[in-house]
Specification:
The structure is a single chain. This protein has 356 residues and is α/β, with parallel strands linked by helices. It folds into two domains: 3-250, NAD(P)-binding Rossmann-like Domain (Rossmann fold); 260-355, 3-Layer(aba) Sandwich (Oxidized Rhodanese, domain 1). The protein has helices at 3-6, 8-11, 17-26, 38-48, 81-92, 110-114, 127-139, 167-170, 189-207, 267-271, 284-289, 300-304, 325-336, 348-355; strands spanning 28-32, 52-56, 97-101, 119-122, 144-150, 153-159, 219-224, 229-234, 260-262, 277-280, 296-297, 317-320, 342-345. The chain has an eight-stranded mixed beta sheet, sandwiched between helices. Strands 9-13-12-10-11 form a five-stranded parallel beta sheet, with helices on one face. β1 (28-32), α4 and β2 form a beta-alpha-beta unit. The structure holds zinc ion. Residues 165-166, 168-169, 238, 241, 243-244 line the site of zinc ion.
Length: 356
């Protein structure tokens, strides 16, 4: 296939030209997460001819993904996302190298992965991963294009460049008590598509710079898709930032497992035929006054006194309390002990009573 012909519509732009195209073809980009953000990023970067693309995703395609993860077909259900994405992108552009990494990004593999690429794209949906990506990006001096969506809101920025701020300059620590955006949070595919597309554009600008390009370094783009109002907030580097103000070898990489939330409405379905354990972390008097049938009692105060439940670390656990905050704390405590399959019941027992 004639490469010049394939990329003609972009090389004809004076901002790109043959020189810009050569840079795009020589670039390597690692995309973390082949989900709602990662799919449009991957499609546009592969189509533009980014010469080496890595895809990290340990998850497999399920039916609920197809509404927004536009790389996947119904026939991909059950297959690993990184591998399925790589196959589709290879069909789109056989001239580029696509590597799939069907693993979960964690503190043991992140540096080795980042060191192999020029640029990283954050297509994740949880804070734990975003902080890990940030810290590793600063440590390995690999800039990353941050993207996030919540409901109809989206944000994009470029972090981890030598002179610009990092994600921790903006958010020093993971938000306390925040329940990450997991399977139950709603999203319209086009919202993810728009933010992912902006991330792909920022990647092109970083890879093939031109005097007219102003990548979102030190600026945060926010878009409210109810109204399409967008803002550009100026971000500055925090001189006391716990990550980017340090020497690279002083940066330690940590990863705490995110805790997903589960809505009470689907708990009976989720527990049917599974070995999921429902745990009530309220105090004894609250338990005695009423609890969900089939639950076990394990008070937060008992856990926080340093007690370790005698359960397998991979036991599927759903935690609840009165409103959902104490159970989140319990989930974070258990995650710290190495429990990996934790879900927090949003709204707690109060919500449960309303719907049952
Ligand atoms: Zn910083």
């Amino acid at each position: 296939m004639n490469k010049a012909e394939r990329y003609k519509r972009q090389t004809v732009l004076s901002e790109i030209g043959e020189a810009g195209q050569a840079r795009i073809n020589a670039a390597s980009v690692l995309v973390i997460g082949a989900g709602g953000l990662g799919c449009p990023v991957l499609l546009y970067l592969a189509a533009a001819g980014v010469g080496h693309i890595g895809i990290v995703d340990f998850d497999s395609v399920d039916e609920t993904n197809l509404q927004r993860q536009v790389l996947f077909k119904t026939s991909d259900i059950g297959t690993n996302k990184a591998q399925a994405a790589a196959a589709h992108l290879h069909a789109l552009n056989p001239d580029i190298i696509i590597e799939d990494f069907p693993v979960e990004l964690d503190s043991s593999n992140v540096e080795a992965l980042f060191e192999r690429f020029d640029l990283v794209i954050d297509g994740t949906d949880n804070f734990a991963a975003k902080f890990l990506i940030n810290d590793a990006a600063v440590k390995t001096t690999t800039p990353f294009i941050y993207g996030s969506i919540l409901g109809f809101d989206g944000q994009v920025s470029v972090f981890g460049t030598p002179d610009g701020p990092c994600y921790r300059c903006l958010f020093p620590d993971p938000p306390k008590g925040h329940v990450p955006n997991c399977a139950e949070a709603g999203v319209i595919g086009a919202v993810a598509g728009m933010i992912g597309t902006v991330q792909a554009m920022e990647a092109i600008k970083m890879i093939a710079p031109h005097e007219s390009f102003q990548p979102l370094v030190g600026r945060l783009l926010t878009v409210d898709m109810h109204s399409m109002e967008n803002r550009l907030l100026t971000l500055s580097k925090n001189p006391d930032c716990s990550v980017c103000s340090k020497n690279r070898d002083e940066i330690t990489l940590e990863y705490t497992l995110p805790v997903c939330s589960i809505i009470p409405e689907i708990i009976p379905d989720q527990m049917q035929g599974s070995d999921a354990l429902l745990i009530d972390v309220r105090e004894r008097n609250e338990w005695d006054a009423g609890h969900i049938e089939g639950a076990e009692h394990m008070a937060l105060s008992w856990l926080m006194a340093g007690n370790v439940p005698g359960l397998h670390k991979d036991q599927d656990i759903i935690l609840y309390c009165q409103k959902g905050m104490r159970s989140l704390q319990a989930a974070q405590y258990l995650a710290g002990l190495g429990f990996s399959n934790l879900r927090n019941m949003a709204g707690g027992y109060e919500k449960w009573l309303k719907i049952n």
